[in-house]
Design brief:
Number of helices: 7
Strand content: 25-35%
InterPro entries: Acyl_CoA_acyltransferase, GNAT_dom
Distance between the termini: 45 Å
CATH architecture of the largest domain: 3-Layer(aba) Sandwich
Keywords: Acyltransferase, Transferase
Structural class: alpha+beta
Organism: Streptomyces atroolivaceus
Order of helices and strands: HEEEHEHEEEHHEEEHEHE
GO molecular function: acyltransferase activity
EC number: 2.3.-.-
CATH class of the largest domain: Alpha Beta
CATH topology of the largest domain: Aminopeptidase
Length: about 260
Amino acid sequence: MEPDGILALFDREMREHARPEGPGTHVERVGDVVRQTGGADDWNGVVWTAPDLSPGRAESEIAAQVEHYTARGLGEFEWKLYAHDGPACLGGLLTAAGFEPEPPETLLVAPVAGRPMPVELPEGVRLRQVTDAAGVELMVRAHELAFGTDGSRLRHRALARLSDAPDTFVAVVAMAGDEPVSSARMEMHPGTGFAGLWGGGTAAPWRGRGIYRSLIAHRARIAASLGYRYLQADATDRSAPILRRLGFTALSTTTPYVYRTAP
């Protein structure tokens, strides 16, 4: 399938007909948007907007979503804006309404079939599958070392998925001895052709040794065994070049516009 066709498929399956990310979250279409609502530690936000959205309707929808999420006492929510979404002024309208844009990411997709999938780890490094709370703690530790950010929400979401939807969630940690040095997860979406790659990050002293590539290959093997057609990732400037070299194609960019109701 050509990139435009894959993008249209992605928009339809992963955005317009999005499934809840996990237990405790609810996805619904209201007016011209599709949104997810959950608890304070869940991802809350708008995932899709109608392709014919006009500036006037966009302003109304923005106001409605601000009211919806703030009424639930949530500290923040996100409007996930893609470069091909309309209207062209949507980003400006979100900013004017109090949303703050975060760094854009590249939407990258690769076919699962026919991919070379060598897992080539540095000497002394092994992969550990995350299947319990102890594994989640190792994953959170690796995430915090790689990104320098708090992993509390990751812990909450990973434990919830392992408890209530383990068949749709894969997480793995690269261990150097007893120290977690890298981690990544994959979220499967039954009924779609897409498996999402998330959270791939490696602690600074271990970068450039092929661990990130091996974590992609490991997850690609699992996706292939489960019959998924495409791997999908929202990539930062750091990871996008690696994914491109591995055969991923850029379909669009996505910018998180975040509305914070609390300091």
